[in-house]
Amino acid sequence: MLENYENIIIYGLGQSGISSYEKLKDKKNIFIWDDCEKKRKELEKKGYEFTEPIKWPWEKIDLLILAPGIALNFGADSFIVKESKKNKIKIAGDIEVFYQELKSLVIRKKIIAVTGTNGKSTFVSVLNEILQKSGLKSFIAGNIGIPVLSINIDEFDIIILEVSSFQLELIDEFTADISVLLNVYEDHNERYESYEEYQKTKTKIFLNQRNTDYAIFDDFYLSEKILKEINPSPKHVLFKDNEFNDLSNKISQNGIIKKFLPALIKVTDILDVDRNFVINQLTKFKNLNHRIYEVCSHDGVSFINDSKATNPAAANFAASQFKDIYWILGGLSKNNDLSKLDLSNKNIKKIYLIGSSSDQLSQIIPKKVKFEVSYNLESATKSAYKEVLKSQRGCILLSPGCSSQDQFIDYQERGNKFTKIVNNLVVKC
Fold it and tell me: How far apart are CA 222 and CA 236, in angstroms?
């Protein structure tokens, strides 16, 4: 694809946009833009040259590389997206550009693509760890770690990609040798008009698979109708709830690993990695930071950082893993249905509400459940700690079920703030 395009727009200069620019700047005629003036000024200091879009030679533009954060549908009023469609300019994302580069290689590389509402980062991280320790040259990129276009492809045989729905919106020819759909829960209602639209976007990960490829998914989430739409049909694998019970009993009590055990086993089986070796490695895996991660445990009180839980399903799962929960909840709802939060969980001792959804959440908490509106994270954490010290037993759980972007840059900043607060509260941690 890339050899056919000379004049390229890169719209959105986040990590993926910058990596696209660095990859192509010496080969193509590049026009770059970001709507954030602050970001443009920062990049100009580094030598990036911006030209106002109104001055671009639109009739000569061949390709628009769009940042995943910019929606095609709801962002259609964007001048750049609008002009690109008007001029019938090809629109792609960095995942598609990467795939086109991969196609041109003489030596084939294997691609494993993973998507889902929750658990993607954990899944690709543990998979990569297992493959590397088994002696395979693998690497993770995409929606986690470094952008896919920053990879030195020659150094690896297997590329594991965490792929978001935003990235899947922009694929054309992209496909993977093994595609994995972990789950589809309601999320990103601020971007998608319906759950069905969101689900359909997730299933695009299977769109271009060949009959030699593998599609791995849980049949609870994918209907037979969707399976029939995959053409040509890959070697698909369905999960059965009871198929892996014996294997599940061999690993630790790590709930996240147990949840994704079937998919992990299926992928490693396909790659001929010994099962006993896989199970042994899974018993050693520690949760990722910000994903049901224990910051500290002291005097009967544990502090759990699950800041990455940005939708009700993720938060519910975290809450199901603990007893005596002092739950810090709230943030930017993303128009998700917060009534799906399991606020009647018998293990909840008290709820502490933060962020812009505090008032909304206060209206749906059952009367029997204690709560207070703290609004900010520090106040909530300190209040929860004061309360839990009375019994010296419990879990202070930051699992907001909402986005962080009403009060923080991202979930990482929110999680790091929580960790800092905890370390200041509990000196011995």
Answer: 12
| Distance set, CA 18 to CA 32, 148, 364 (Å) | 9, 11, 43
- pLDDT, one tens digit per residue, over 178-230 is 999 998 888 998 888 898 899 889 989 998 988 899 999 875 556 566 667 76
Domain match, 170 and 112 both = yes
Q: Which domain holds residue 27?
A: 2-92
Residues 260 and 159 in one domain: yes
- Cβ atoms within 10 Å of 272's Cβ, excluding its own: 8
Q: Mark whether 297 and 417 lie in a shared domain.
A: yes
Q: How far is CA 128 from the centre of its chain?
A: 16
DSSP per position, 242-255: TTTHHHHTTS-S-H
Counted domains in the chain: 3
Tell me the C-alpha distance between 237 and 230, whole Å.
13
- The domain that contains 376 carries what CATH number? 3.90.190.20
| CATH code: domain of residue 68 | 3.40.50.720
* Contact (CB, 8 A) for 212 and 189: no
User: Residue 177 phi/psi, 5° resolution?
Assistant: -65, -40
Query: Using one digit for the tens of pLDDT, what is the confidence trace for 247-279?
Result: 777 676 667 788 888 899 999 999 999 999 998
